[in-house]
Amino acid sequence: MSKDKSEYLINRKDNQYEVVIGLEVHAQVTSESKLFSASSTKFGAEPNTQVSLVDAALPGMLPVINEYCVKQAIKTGIGLKAKINKRSVFDRKNYFYADLPQGYQISQFKDPIVGEGKVILDMPDGQKEVGIERLHLEQDAGKSIHDLDPKNTFVDLNRSGVALMEIVSKPDLRSPDEVNAYVKKLRSIMRYLGTCDGNMQEGSLRADVNVSVRKKGSKVFGTRCEIKNVNSIKFMQMAIEYEANRQVDLIEEGQSIDQETRLFDTKKNETRSMRSKEDAHDYRYFPDPDLLPLEVSDDFIEKLKLEIPELPDEKKKRFIEKFKLSPYEATILVSDNETSNYFENVIKKSDVKLATNWIIGELFAALNEKNIEITESPISAGNLSKLINLIKDGTISGKIAKTVFENMMEGDKDPKKIVEEKGLKQESDPKALEALIDKVIDDNREKANEYKSGKVKLFGFFVGQVMKVSGGKANPQLVNEILKKKL
Amino acid sequence: MSDITKQSLSELIKNIKDKKLSSTEVIKAFVERSEKSKKLNAYVTEDFSAAIDKAKKFDENPNLDLKLPGIPIAVKDLFCTKNVKTTAGSKILNNFIPTYESTVTQNIWNEGAILLGKLNCDEFAMGSSNETSFYGCVQNPIDKDLVPGGSSGGSSSAVAAQLTPITIGTDTGGSIRQPASFTGIVGLKPTYGSCSRYGIVAFASSLDQAGPMAQNVRDCALLHEVISSYDEKDSTSIDFKRNNYVKELTNNIKGKKIGIPKEYRVDAMPKEIEDLWKKGIDYVKECGAEIIDISLPHTNYALPTYYIVAPAEASSNLARYDGVKYGFRADGENLIDMYEKTRSEGFGAEVQRRIMIGTYVLSSGYYDAYYLKAQKVRKLIKNDFDEAYKKVDAILTPSTPSSAFKIGEKTNDPVSMYLNDIFTVPVNLAGLPGISIPAGHDAKGYPLGLQIIGKAFDEQNLLNIAYAMEEKIDFKNKITDWWIK
């Protein structure tokens, strides 16, 4: 296995450095209500309208675990092929901040609900396995808003208490591209499961990125820095790129790296120190005495296993085996549930090979251009299927099909109707084609003679002329055959 | 009708049910006596006129099937009461008016009782003499300048002085039983998980438990029956079958086995306490129960364990009082400065001491040596009781190592203050029910209490033993109304 080609290394003079990355992804659990209260989790509500007495930490208020969130975390664990811990413990992580009403965050420290698992990445040079260290449930904090008033900070507690899954990877990632693939795969798995919508704009998915560097070949990890709360894949990649180079520069200058927490400044494209190890908070974790240890039975877990849908890896395998797709095609088509559903709907009644090409090619390009999701596609799976059948049965040529497709993008019209209305039907009647071809040969006698005397390159010219005269509607295959005979 | 406020709860209920007394008459009598008793400083917040209005309304259409029909009750100011200020004895909550009701008080209102007001207590229930309250010391009606015990000191004083026929307190390390003992009344700390903690200002979550305080065991049993309930809003609430504690109350405890733990014979125990304990043993025997010597070997470690676990939880529970959302706020240059000023000015010295102890024992590097070790010892203490209960049905001990002391006597010596709870703390650590009943007087004429400790969820048996002993003891509290003249 040669992976040198795609290896991501930082070069300085004689030295090559490898980058070691681990991610702590914070994924918001898809749930109507919060982790320990009945408040709504809906995004975008007026500030402080989704705050219960528990969320605001009024005196004497007590947390009560939301069973649905526990199920979601376990399902995610199953999706990550991870060990589900039948007994887990909620701890308090103590620190003061204006948007943390309790003065502590309820999280899981020593005994998380999910243990070790794995995620498979499809990289251009093959598959890569990334280890999952753990997944635990915790509460989100509220939001401090510093820029609304020159003197005051405003606090919005709508997010306070919303359930998050913190998914901690092992330090198995080696490049920004792998981070990109990892986050996308994680998001894909959770979206298949319905446990996190993965919406990064709304903050449903963010990550703390741990970065260290070491000389190529070294087995010892370097000192790592943690870049806090990065909320897009692009920014994660930029932050890693900057941070890895910063660390390499320090080493090259003979300096050491301080273990610290850093922030990524998206405007300046740089990371800067937030606090050093010495200033690190002492969170004084201890088991939350308001909550009993969380215990789930085998039966509970088994029942949840029955609710797990086919996940991307399994679906990919099936697509390759059953539909003879290439790994590349299958990877793209299973990247999210909506795409694979669309694909499977299209191929119910049409050719797999053509469908694959049309979806990955024309459809994705068109959707991209409009910046919309496949669920919002103007062309329904049924109509795309019809279009493909029109190509397959020779009613229209591939070229004409592109015109029809463009028409369909304007509104979900039946492609047959478009073909009829615009008279785009392919000419496949041999007699009609013969007449057409005879005329073209007549009109180009000299060239026909040249062809006959050996200038075979001119064949393409004749095909072009026939297509032009027919308005692109002539069946190219038949044109070829007849032309050969006549010339 | 003779002096209404001298009647027990059971007598008041009977008179109201027999229509010999109206709720208004009863409420007015207790309000009047409370008004005359301001010197005791038992109340933080009086809700007297609202109480009289509620009584009048009750009398218009009295529901006499309720367990507490039109009965007045003042409650410890640690219970959140809807629209009535709730301070927890602290400056930091001096303007806090809850929009919600604690489950325990809601249970009381559901049975027809009427709130008289909120009773003084040690700040956040941290204290054994009611002297840590921001709202001042409470006088023990037994004698001038005598502490009523703590932390439920306003509660014990108010019941002993007959400002309210019954009350509820909370008990984290002895805060119901010790003040009950100091004032000559009955106080029950139920099994952990018996009464909901929802809406009670938290001190130490794994130890806090609400309980009834009354003039006699029967009244105590009735109030316990009302307040004990399973509550989904409290994840540590336990769904067990609760008895009809009054209906099933009996003085027949023949054949019951009562354990006497040798480790409770502490050094320098006053002779009066030792004599009281012996007397208690005699009473139990007279009732036909059997005395068995037992050992609770880890008793010595209970107090140090408690003073790690309770402050640790408190340091975290009290983090929410930061001046941001509600309660007292001191202005500051920035967020950190505001926190520091708010909490330095808002919390009293004892609360600050415990927050610091708690923060220390949870700190990284100390957690294993203190908090984790304490949790292990706590388990050993619980195991001690489990072992003992293989041989006995209940355990008899003194409630406190001394009678009530003078105000100011121990304020500068926290350790000697903490030693007050030496007999009560193990019960909280083990999550068991315990009851203190008045059993005699010392040479000064101050009341002394005996504690009975039961098996988990066995409040009925505990109450029965207390009920049988009460009959034999025939205790008379010596209240002279010295504060009224």
Properties at a glance:
heterodimer, A: 487 residues, alpha+beta, Arc Repressor Mutant, subunit A, three-stranded antiparallel sheet, B: 485 residues, alpha/beta, Amidase signature (AS) enzymes, three-stranded mixed sheet
Explain what this protein looks like in three dimensions.
The complex is a heterodimer of chains A (487) and B (485). With 487 residues, chain A is an alpha+beta fold. Chain A folds into 3 domains: 18-305, no CATH class; 310-422, no CATH class; 430-486, Arc Repressor Mutant, subunit A, CATH 1.10.10. Chain A contains 15 helices and 16 strands. In chain A, strands 1, 2, 6, 7, 10, 11, 12, 13 and 14 form a 9-stranded mixed β-sheet that branches. In chain A, helix 9 packs antiparallel against helix 10 (398-409) and helix 12 (430-443) packs across helix 15. In chain A, 40% of the residues are buried. Chain B has 485 residues and is of the alpha/beta class. Chain B has an 8-stranded mixed β-sheet, with helices on both faces. In chain B, helix 9 crosses helix 12 (368-388). The model of chain B has no long low-confidence stretch (mean pLDDT 97). The A-B interface holds A 53, 56-65, 92, 94, 96-98, 101-104, 153, 155, 282, 284-286, 289-292 and B 80, 86, 88, 93, 96, 98-100, 102, 197-202, 204-206, 232-236, 312-313, 315-316, 318-320, 322, 324-326, 335, 339, 359, 362-364, 367, 371.
